[in-house]
Write a structure and sequence with these properties.
Shape: elongated
Order of helices and strands: EEEEEEHEEHEH
Number of domains: 2
Number of helices: 3
Structural class: alpha+beta
Radius of gyration: 18 Å
Helix content: 10-25%
CATH architecture of the largest domain: 2-Layer Sandwich
CATH class of the largest domain: Alpha Beta
CATH topology of the largest domain: Alpha-Beta Plaits
Distance between the termini: 26 Å
């Protein structure tokens, strides 16, 4: 499979489609699919969701419980809670209005399925809002911290 790579400050490999198994790959930032790659301790990690999963809760206490559970399980490096936010949405044949709290989880793409499953299992909503946002840029240090905190 060919990947589209964008050269970083330390990479002396060519920008283009790279199939090489050499170390230069670990010094590049992968730009295909909006993913960012980085090297740490000889291993190459890719994070395609960094402000990653967004979940909405009806109660602040429940949002904090799920945020804490995701971080304690090392699924997410961090979880931030915003709210209350007012949501206006269509549900069961009528427009609904509720105050809700958003939880933003920071995690690697490799942990997303696990986070989604955990949220669905503990959520009070029949159809919880769980979405992921691709990042297009991020500091290598911050993305490295996300990878290390979730291993």
């Amino acid at each position: 499979m060919a990947w589209r790579w964008r050269r970083s400050r330390t990479c002396n490999g060519d920008v283009g489609y790279c199939n090489c198994p050499n170390a230069c790959r670990a010094e590049c930032v992968r730009s295909s699919l909006g993913s960012v790659g980085f090297a740490s301790g000889g291993a190459l990690w890719f994070v395609s969701f960094a402000a990653a999963a967004i979940d909405v809760q009806l109660r602040a206490e429940h949002a904090e419980q799920l945020a804490r559970a995701g971080v304690e399980a090392r699924i997410a490096a961090c979880a931030q809670i915003d709210g209350p936010v007012k949501s206006v949405y269509w549900w069961e044949g009528a427009v609904q209005v509720d105050e809700e709290w958003r939880v933003f989880y920071k995690l690697g793409a490799d942990r997303y399925a696990e986070l989604e499953q955990a949220i669905k299992a503990a959520h009070t909503y029949e159809t919880p809002e769980i979405i992921a946002v691709d990042i297009t840029h991020g500091s290598a240090e911050y993305l490295g911290w996300i990878g290390e905190a979730t291993r």
